[in-house]
Each structure stands twice: as structure tokens, then as C-alpha cells.
Amino acid sequence: MKKETSVKTQNGAVECAHNRICQTEGGAPHCNITCRVAGTIYFTDTRFPEICPMQHTYGSTYICTCPIRQEIYIKKNS
Question: Hey, CA dihedral for 14, 32, 37, 70, is it positive or negative?
């Protein structure tokens, strides 16, 4: 099943170094968003060995700024 996100969201992920694999059939995301704070900050629990320009270190955790992953997280958890 393809994970559907809006065209606006997809266009916002132009920095994606992984060719938007989380949007493909059977594609797994490169990060797992674990929680959202204040509706705008998305945390992940791990950092993958592949470099992602949308994942940033924040103390001992990581922040995901990928609009596709954020939209998938919102849809999954609403």
C-alpha cells in the first residue's frame, strides 16, 4: 500500500537524500518519529547511518524536519 501524502508535502521534501523511499510500495522510512512537541517539533529515537539532511542532532536525540515523515506521523497518530 502506498503511503499517501499531499503534493504540497512532497514538494517540500526536495532535500530528500533517499528519493522519498517512505512513499513507495513497501518502502520503510529512514527514521521513526517517536513523538511530537508543541505540534511542530518531531523527535526520532535513532539516527541511521545514511546521511539525511532533514535530521538534526538535539542533545542525545534527533529532530526530523522531513515534511513527508511528519505528515505520515500525523495521519498514523490522529
Answer: positive
CA nearest neighbour of 29 among 70, 78, 71, 69 = 69
**Cβ(29)–Cβ(47) under 8 Å?**
no
- pTM here is 0.72
What would you report as the CA-atom Rg of the chain, rounded to the nearest whole angstrom?
Answer: 12
pLDDT digit string (tens) for 28-78?
666 788 899 998 999 988 776 567 788 888 888 889 888 888 888 888 887
Res. 6: pLDDT tops 60: yes
Domain ranges for the chain? 7-76
Distance separating alpha carbons of residues 52 and 1, to the nearest angstrom? 24
Please name the residues in contact with 67: beta carbons below 8 A apart, sequence gap of 6 or more: 9, 12, 13
Cβ neighbourhood burial of 51 (10 Å; 0-12, 13-18, 19+): exposed
